[in-house]
């Protein structure tokens, strides 16, 4: 930066006020002799003028604190002694010519210290930038523990570099602190903190900018496409981590260290430096939460933002603990509250989406309905945020049962059931889905397929619950109860779909029948089996476990009695079209979706032979 610009920004003459707070000063002893005062002024004159940039080319291009730490300490001591002498002279004779000389020296010294303060802050940004130091230390730590670095010398060099960075940072902070204490005690507080605020605020603002956090209005957010807004939300989530872990934390630590001498100055500096950037950061989630057209599918990023604020809340309260930072805390809390409202609204919208689904398209073969897959995928994802959702709905009124048929409620649970709001909410969402599926089952003309539809879809629901975090919320008993319903509906399907064939075999197996009756039985069985098989060729059972269970159950009811009759009446096998093995093979092909709808056993057999 050009020297002229730096001078105009930071340095100007000032007539100091000596009404300095006693907490910063020690009253000079009256025992100071005239000669002692003269010696202090002369010593100060020699030291201060030697580093006067206006009278020395060397002093104008050299940093006192960088060039000679010992002389820098002597310079500060001379200034403090000079101040004590000035207070003594002012208390005894305010018109003393030595006081005028001392004031001139003090102004020159403050000008020098202000210059040093500025230079240290400007030249050591890398050592005072909390984000850079944290990133470098973390990277070095990762390298030192990596398997790719087996060289002990390399590890030692890396460790030494970390120590060097920390030592430099500590030394820089110590210099800033000593200058700040000296200038504040001498009545030049404004000049000191002006420089500090300008430089440090620029670092915070630059950090926020580099993190990609930008000022957005509600109108602009509403105009953004979801794809663009999604990228901005994900960027904000990363920015929040870095800002809280390094940027604001580091700035608070630095401010507390440099201005440890005064609580009020620490508060004033940190607040002015961080307020704008922090408010900008914490405002973003609230703006997004108020966005129109927020569909339920977009809830999860809102939950991520809610989680981020919740997890960082202790740090927010600690870092921005000053009373003057209350606006920052309020902004974070406002966004937190707006996200709560937004998530509740989207949960209600999700429930409404299920209830309002008016699709009358039947799931082919009694298979899974698209609504079942969509809703359960959504609810499973919600369960991953169970702790967050528990907080959001803690004081949200529970759903009203009157909106669903009474027949769908378990009588063992009363209105005063002890379940938590979280359990009730998730159980309710699934109940809404099951009620909707019950209604859709009624559109099937074949009642057996309707039962298979319910068995398939409830099985999908129960399976998703058992294999996700939902089981931790709803419990094993909930899963067991609904798996029992699956078996119940699967059993009803079997009874309706295969009852005529099964009943015929059961009756003939237990009765004493003639050879002629056996012939008639096989003649009737063949078309009956083919008709039942043809109707079931379109049916599907997506879940492998349920599919095998249903096949085994049908085979046990059908194949076993058929085999018994087949073996018992060998003489009439001329009338038998299917062997027991044929029956087993045909049944094994069912429910996998590999048979053409309406196929007969014979056509299915021919196609299997060709393949």
UniProtKB/TrEMBL annotation:
Keyword Transport carried by entry: yes
Q: Kindly state one GO CC term assigned in the UniProt record.
A: exocyst
Q: Please name the Pfam families in this protein's record.
A: Exo70_C, Exo70_N
- Note whether Protein transport occurs among the keywords: yes
Query: What domain of life is recorded for the organism?
Result: Eukaryota
Q: Which keywords are on file for this protein? A: Exocytosis, Protein transport, Transport
Q: Which GO biological process categories is it annotated with?
A: exocytosis; protein transport
Where the record annotates domain Exocyst complex subunit Exo70 C-terminal, the positions are 234-589
One molecular function GO term is: phosphatidylinositol-4,5-bisphosphate binding
Task: Return the similarity comment.
Answer: Belongs to the EXO70 family.
Q: Briefly, what is this protein's role?
A: Component of the exocyst complex.
Q: What is the name attached to this protein's record?
A: Exocyst subunit Exo70 family protein
Origin organism is Erythroxylum novogranatense
Ranked from the top, the taxonomy reads:
Eukaryota, Viridiplantae, Streptophyta, Embryophyta, Tracheophyta
